[in-house]
Amino acid sequence: MKRFIMLLALILLPILPGCGIGFEAGSSQPVTLTLWHNYGGQLKDTMDEMIDEFNETVGKKEGIIVSVTSISGSATLHEKLTMAAHGDPGAPSLPDITTVYPKTALILAEKGLLADLDEQFTRKELSAYIPQFIEEGRLADGGLYVFPIAKSTEVLFVNKTLFDRFSRDTGARIEDLQSFEGIIRTASLYYEWTDRQTPDIPNDGKMFYMPDSIFNLFLVGCRQLGAEFTADGQLNLNTPQHKKVWDFYFTPAVMGQVAVFDGYATDLAKTGDIVCSTGSTAGVSFFSPTVTYADNTSEPIELAILPYPVFEGGKK
Question: What pTM was estimated for this model as a whole?
Answer without folding.
Answer: 0.69
